[in-house]
Write a structure and sequence with these properties.
With about 300 residues, this protein is mainly α. The protein is built from eleven helices and four strands, in the order ββααααααββααααα. Helix content is about 70%, strand content about 5%. It starts with a strand and ends in a 12-residue tail after the last helix.
């Protein structure tokens, strides 16, 4: 079932795109991640231009985050004050990211930059996740308890002025810290098409020192509004959002998430994290190889 994507300017098999969305949805349900950091590379592997893949993936993450936010709001798992500061920083970062995206697009380097950033980010995060998961599995097999890290914000965060109280997060810190974190995540959202949860959640835990009860919900709250802003920015500036592509991905991800959540209940969390780390590292290696492979056709002709 071939379908023409008007912005990507190519024909694709609609069932394959829905299947990719379903795969990411399964991962989202299994591991509790938005999946945007895997959606963009998978679309690129399939042949979607990186610019369109990044912009359309952000749109798909917006739709996939809605149900998650409502679920956490009902459980009182969202710090709206912290989330508001993160959203402001994220929206500002989205505009800055759009400017960077447009400059790189005009210079013809955006595809290479997207690939390099994915290799660095996925390689680093995948290695950290694999190390943590392997340590937990080894401790589980030997019967030794894993040392629990004390919740404490980073000394650099403590040094910032103008402290506020974030009651739901149990923090008394400067709003500049979450503002900067949201700003950087907003830039990544526009350039890479990710929700930023795979960076946001560890940063909220280990840099800001937030309580675990509100981290995921607050992260999803920020992701919802920032990916929405990133989609609007892409639609009005870079013109790279393919709504047909995003719709197909959303159909697959919503369905796949239900199956992923059921499957996750049957596996130990340590093995789930190790499996996710392995998949992230495989994608990073594939992206790295793609940067070094010589294409079959060195030169192409494109209509401007």
């Amino acid at each position: 079932m071939d379908l023409y994507l008007p912005i990507a300017n190519i024909s694709v098999n609609a069932l394959v795109i829905i299947g990719l969305g379903g795969l990411v949805g399964v991962l989202s349900g299994m591991f509790g991640v938005g999946g945007g950091f895997l959606t963009t590379p998978l679309l690129i592997f399939y042949g979607i231009p990186p610019t369109v893949a990044a912009a359309s993936a952000a749109t798909q993450v917006t739709g996939a985050s809605v149900s998650g936010v409502f679920a956490h709001v009902q459980r009182n798992g969202v710090d709206f004050r912290m989330g508001g500061v993160l959203v402001i920083g994220g929206i500002l970062g989205s505009f800055a990211g759009a400017g960077i995206f447009r400059v790189l697009q005009d210079s013809g380097q955006i595809d290479t930059v997207i690939a390099i950033l994915y290799v660095v980010l996925l390689g680093t995060i995948g290695a950290m996740m694999a190390k943590e998961a392997w340590t937990s599995i080894a401790a589980m097999k030997t019967g030794q308890p894993v040392a629990v890290r004390k919740r404490r914000h980073h000394p650099l965060v403590a040094a910032l002025p103008l402290r506020w109280r974030f009651y739901r997060s149990g923090l008394y810190i400067s709003p500049l810290a979450p503002l900067i974190l949201g700003f950087l995540t907003g830039i990544l959202t526009v350039i890479l098409g990710v929700g930023g949860g795979f960076i946001m959640v560890p940063a909220m835990l280990y840099l800001l020192g937030m309580t675990t009860q509100v981290v995921v919900g607050t992260s999803l709250f920020q992701i919802l509004f920032v990916t929405m802003a990133a989609t609007m920015v892409h639609a009005t500036t870079t013109k790279a959002v393919d709504i047909v592509l995003a719709g197909l991905l959303l159909i697959g991800s919503v369905t796949g998430a239900q199956y992923g959540a059921r499957f996750a209940q049957k596996m130990r969390p340590e093995y789930l994290r190790l499996l996710l780390a392995a998949m992230v590292l495989l994608v990073a290696v594939r992206m790295a190889l793609g940067l070094g492979w010589r294409p079959d056709e060195i030169y192409t002709v494109a209509l401007q």
